[in-house]
Amino acid sequence: MNLLIATATPVLIVIIYIYIKDKYEKESKRVLLVSFLLGAILSIVITTLLYLFFDLFLPLPDNYSIWQQFVKAFFVVALIEEFSKYIMVRYYAQPRKDFNEPFDGIIYAVMVSMGFAAVENLFYVLEGGLEVAAIRAITAIPAHATFAIIMGYYMGKAKFSNNRMKWNLIGLALAVLFHGAYDFFLFIGFIPGISIGAFISLIIGIILSKRAIKAHQEISYFKKIKK
Q: The whole model's pTM is what?
């Protein structure tokens, strides 16, 4: 029970935080739950299948070079995971009529991402225990949230743009960039002190995420007062 609580608590905190930040036009709880479940089930399934594909047909050697760690971080882990979340937002949430303000891109992306993160977190915590849960609560879970906010910010712009593909792909690319940078510095942790790069990229991501939330809140506010 303690492990389940430790697994779920940071995810729940992120969800509540983002839900509160959606100040002006709350989304349907049912749709948010479906988004969460899509991340927890379909995104995990897609990610697992793509990982299996890479392991079978494009395997990396056991002793990775720094370049190979770079490829793994950006073009395997980050790209696969963020793409699996992206398509849930793109094909389930973004076409919906409920997606009626730019901030919705953030909240739907976060819900999908937290579904994914909850399942991933459960596997890690069951294997590593409460110590791993504590570490991931202040690292991996906030990281997944920041990747989602950045991607969702641009997917929110895309919904109301004449060039939807452009903004959607920018959102995906930036999520992959931050996710890849975070993982890369952790993957090459055998270089003394280099892991600090992961926390620097996370801090930058958090700063940009706060700005993204504020920017879309302002758009929602002006939209409300014009009604």
A: 0.94
Tokens of residue 158, six digits: 């895309």
Kindly give the residue spans of alpha helices, DSSP state H, lying in 66-102.
66-71, 79-88
- Rounded CA-CA distance 47/134 in Å is 25
For the chain, the distance separating the N- and C-terminal CA atoms, rounded to the nearest angstrom, is 48
- DSSP state, residue 163: -
What is the per-residue pLDDT across 18-38, written as a single tens digit (0 to 9) for each? 999 998 888 899 999 999 999
- Cα–Cα nearest to 155, from 113, 119, 200: 113
Residues 152, 209: Cα–Cα separation, whole Å: 10
Distance CA 53, CA 68 (A): 17
Distances (CA, A) of 33 to 25, 26, 163, 177: 17, 13, 29, 27
Domain boundaries, the chain: 2-52+67-226
Q: Residue 226 is encoded by which pair of tokens?
A: 């014009």
Q: How far is CA 132 from CA 41, 121, 122, 189, in A?
A: 23, 9, 10, 17
Could you identify the residue written with the tokens 């706060």?
A: 210
pLDDT single digits (tens) 102-150? 999 999 999 999 999 999 999 999 888 889 999 999 999 999 999 999 9
